[in-house]
């Protein structure tokens, strides 16, 4: 998979993809993230990527030309499955959407800033609009990193133990059960006996019960669904 991220603050994305699971995905040749600085596509003398809003009002709006030039260039090099715009008024991101996107080959993610992008960008280029939650970030970069992380770790071969993504919270619409490691007794706080029993079928049954209990208690809406 290749993910091209378009941003006017590329520095915000210089860290997340160089560590841990995402670095492993890159080293194994399973996923590549390429960050593009929108200013490199600016058409004005001062490399402007934003301008005042028509009709007035506070805040700047990202201009269509630099974005169009960047997207057109990328599209001339390869086909893209989706051109995603990160925005708080997009569709709420969840595990189902992460699963779907993990099956794609090439994605473009456009990060919004200031008051957002000129509506014509959304009308002409964007195929999917994603929000990572009902709150407003300073820009779409951290949201894009969240989506890229959630998607890349699902690509087969990225995680060592492939079953570990399948047992994540939300994969079966349930939260994950509690987990424990050594010591078995921490100042009198003991690991549940069943996990030390060696009885695998009973352990799985316990985990399943715990997942249901947790989901009922913490996410009744999700449980009902
Ligand atoms: N940009 C700003 N806030 C955002 C959010 N909640 N989700 C996605 N992109 C955003």
TrEMBL record:
Its EC number is 2.1.1.228. Belongs to the RNA methyltransferase TrmD family. Homodimer. It catalyses: guanosine(37) in tRNA + S-adenosyl-L-methionine = N(1)-methylguanosine(37) in tRNA + S-adenosyl-L-homocysteine + H(+). GO terms for molecular function: tRNA (guanine(37)-N1)-methyltransferase activity. The keyword tRNA processing applies. PANTHER family: TRNA (GUANINE-N(1)-)-METHYLTRANSFERASE. It comes from Mangrovivirga cuniculi. It is found in: Cytoplasm. GO terms for biological process: tRNA N1-guanine methylation. It comes from the Bacteria. This is tRNA (guanine-N(1)-)-methyltransferase. Its main location: cytoplasm.
